[in-house]
Amino acid sequence: MPAPIVCYLSGPRLLVKRPGEEPLELESRFAEEVRQRAVQIRKKHEWKQQGRGAQFSGALLWGMDGDDQGPGPLAWFTALSPGRAPGEVLYALSSGRVSGVFAADARAEEPAETEQRLFHTADFQVFDLARTDDHEWVACTTTGAHGVQHLGAMREDGSDFEQLTEGDSMDRAPAWVPGVHAQLVYESAGVGRDAAGQMVGFGPTSVQRLDVPSSEVSTVLEDAKHDHLAPRLDASGRLLCIRRPWHDPSKGALASPKSVGRALMDFVLFPFRLIFALFAYLNFFTASYTGKPLTTAGGPEKQGRDARQLAIWGNLLAAGAVAPGKADEPRDVPSSWQLLRWTLDDEGQPKGDPEVLAKSVADYHLASDGSVVFTTGRTVVCLSPDGSRETLVEGEHIRRVVVLGD
Question: Over the Cα atoms of the chain, what is R_g?
Fold first, then answer.
């Protein structure tokens, strides 16, 4: 197939890759407005950073100095989807308090100039947009009370929002079932809590199917040893998803010490580990929101990942460390993250062993011609129906990718 228009999230940025052109950043006007408001607030309180007022600012505590250039991106991209018209991309932005859905024409010379705000709300945060040509409803993930996530649906203008799932679970990554009226597949994981009701971990992530009109939910795929992420059904009715090993949160190092000596050592070191953990938390929090760590020693800053970018990507890589890949296989996720495809039986259940389409997959999208476009975190690759592969773009920390229609 001819090279498609690809949109992808690389760290905190949204980029458009058109055939034969270099990637172009889509700089949202909404995100820039949020940043400018933050700069204005900062200037309003500049006196606190000058003279005697500086002693009240805490700047030294947070590792900041007079050369600090102000806030970084204060609105971040939380979702990406093909739009309603050819070449249109939908995306969600969140500033923490307000979340909005926007559309832009990726084919335009300056896509940012075509940005339209479809709606915004302070009632919920929008993640994982999913739309279809079969109807005007857009499915999404929203964050609810106590940190759980549920599915919702709304019209493309944001009206008539309706919550679709409930319970103490993490329901995410909805996708409409092609050719079937108002059915979704999505990933779901149960939440584990301690006696105080605090969230301590998640169970294995399964694939569920929801019939929206009847609210009937059925399990499509589950495995006690694996998570199954970002499920999709292709035009032939085959199931695709990313499978990765599930790690039991109850089986940490402190849960089953190998020996009495190890347990004693843990007891002796506990106060020091507690202090270090507290410092690490404060350092992470500070770096995430100011872009500067608490520690300033160690020579000049090194060129590398932005602190806010690391915070986003750290959530994705929590499942395990990434071993170095081959020189021709740049990747940011472990090889155990595999993109699989199953054939389903008449009952909608997987039959036989799955086909391994790719390894080290962070995200993927199904193109209209049957191709699968996926990212390893460092590259975006097109896997054609005949099995051939083409690298479409190379980058860093690519966490979402979509293919736009003609």
Answer: 23
Q: How far apart, in whole angstroms, are the C-alpha atoms of residue 347 and residue 179?
A: 16
Q: Does 53 fall in a domain? A: no
The residue segments making up the domain with residue 270 are: 249-292+306-311
Q: What is the pLDDT of residue 13?
A: 92
Pairing of strands 88-94, 76-82: antiparallel
The verdict on 382 and 266 lying in the same domain is no
Closest C-alpha among 53, 54, 119, 49 to residue 90: 119
CA 98 – CA 124 distance, rounded (Å):
8
Q: Supply the pLDDT for residue 68.
A: 44
Judge whether 49 lies within some domain: no
Terminal CA-CA length for the chain? 12
Give the span between the Cα atoms of 138 and 156, in whole angstroms: 6
Tell me the three state secondary structure of residue 260.
helix
pTM of the model as a whole: 0.76
Question: Which residues does 364 contact at the CB level (< 8 Å), separation at least 6?
Answer: 230, 232, 240, 242, 339, 358, 372, 373, 374, 375, 401
Distance CA 157, CA 216 (A): 26
**Tokens read off for 386:** 């005949």
- List, for the chain, all residue ranges whose pLDDT scores fall below the cut of 70: 1-2, 35, 37-73, 144-145, 252-270, 272-274, 276-331, 406
Number of domains in the chain: 2
DSSP 54: G
